[in-house]
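Discussion board: Methods & Data

I've been asked by a reviewer to show the raw model output for two of the constructs in my manuscript, not just the figures. I'm not sure how much to include, so I'm pasting the format here to get opinions. Each protein appears as its amino acid sequence followed by a line of discrete structure tokens. Is this the kind of thing reviewers expect to see in a supplement, or should I convert it first? Here is construct A:
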Amino acid sequence: MRGSSDGAGAGVVRAGGCAVWALPPEARCAGVAREVVRETLGALRLPQGMVDDAVTMVSELATNVFVHALGGRPVAVMPTAGLPEVQIYARRQGAEIVVRVFDSAAWCGSVPSGASLRPPPERESGRGLELVNALAVEHRGRWGAHRSRSRLGSRPVSGKVVYFALPTAVAWCPPRRDCLEAARELRRLLDARGIGPLHLAEGWRMAVLSVRAEITVWVRDGTFFVTLPGGDGACHPVCDVVEVAEQIVRCNEDLNARIRPGV
């Protein structure tokens, strides 16, 4: 999806989906990210101050992609998969907006926090994540980074996302799905990200989606019950199918990294 003057991305978000834009792998990467975030969050009628700060935050994240993931140089040959992306969706019944920037560079380790966010005083750059953290705290939001996979292109590509999530109120109208419809939609989203093979078993007013030995999703009573490695689990309403899919993608990538260290 590309940004447009009619706020098409906002319509996707209101309908419970994830709006995605490819970012050009060149110096105008941050400018395009600012444009689509300002347009989409503005069309969602978020407070102007929050929109302005979100634009600043995504600008810092996209700049980091160009400088660090792409080495500060435009790519010589345009790839058909694995381009940087901006992704926007709502969760928690529209009570939180999530903005994510994806790149296909390898995961470098833990997310910096506290004093490690602040570069030495003599450095003239490197304060982007410190600014993202400060603005997220100001809005009582959160931010972070984790392994993920791309959403656009000719095939899913492994990489990472850096995201921020801000509490707000989005006019959110996702489709009403019963447990079988929700399980099928989750399977579709995971299949599009190259996760599988997936095994879906459907029963009377319930369904079970087996992702891999360590990840199983039960769907019943309007809720996803996700079991994860180590006995961990989480419950989400079926309207949060985009968030559930992303959590599963993240866990899948982390498990793959244990098998193939360095990924």
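Construct B, same format:
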Amino acid sequence: MRYAVLVTGPAGAGKSTFSGALMTHLATSKRTAHLVNLDPAASPDSFEYAPSIDIKDLISLDDVMSELGYGPNGGLVYCFEYLLRNMDWLEEELGDYDDDYLIIDCPGQIELYTHHPFLPTLVKNLNRLGLRTCAVYLLDSQFMEDKYKFFSGVLSAMSAMVNLEIPWINIMSKMDLVTSSSEDPAGGTQRYLEPDPLLLAAPRGQDDANSINPKFHALNQAIVQLIEDHPLVSFLPLDLTNPDSIESVLSNIDYTMQYGEDEEPKEPRDLDEGDFMDMELSSNELDKLQRTWRSFLKLKEHRASRLIDH
């Protein structure tokens, strides 16, 4: 079974940095992982690890803009349309990776996740190729400094979740930058990790924006009602300076994708066949292990014969 993690989120949320940190953590854990770049505008210097699969080997945004005269957004849309028309290229690139962890670094244009059909179509093709997929959506922790900006991020995450229809984890990135000034005194960061719609539900007259424009208050109330009716979004805090934080996020990703549940149990190694010869044991220790193992087998045979006699 192959596994793919789509790293999504708005520009500047730390997707490439998170992908690199996840690659490092997986390597430390003796797990095989490969980086896949799906951003045709990405600079090679932006990656800590060289991508094993790079969409720029198929098409790049610079080429589209120079040859077709498209702008950045139109060029990106064209690149993804071209990728979907050439899925055989991606299938061939993915063919060499079996039982591996693929970390797919996606572009930062939010419209690709919220309403364009490109990523949902890509996910369906990945599932067809036998990849078990999930997505992580990164939101910059600095959004918590402005509650209106934060809830726009919550709504974007909700829209992307509904659009992609795959197992999903929302991550509040750059938590190492959060200071006391970013926290709401009434509930701290927890009111943002588990979005509390009451942050927007300030009574009229107690909020500057609401008092200036009553329609703004009505809009806030509608958003509050939407979030209360559909409590889909919650965030895991991510502090890349803390290995335990990365491990917590990875554990949630593994659980979401049911990582390893389809793996066949490994056959126990046999002392008599020399499977333990590569262990760093002295000859005396190895002889002792083998004698113990043979004694165990004889005892097992003796007990079996006694059961037969009875």
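Answer (T.O., handling editor elsewhere):
This is acceptable in a supplement if you add a one-line summary per construct. For B, something like: The beta strands are 2-8, 33-37, 53-54, 101-105, 131-140, 168-173, 235-237.
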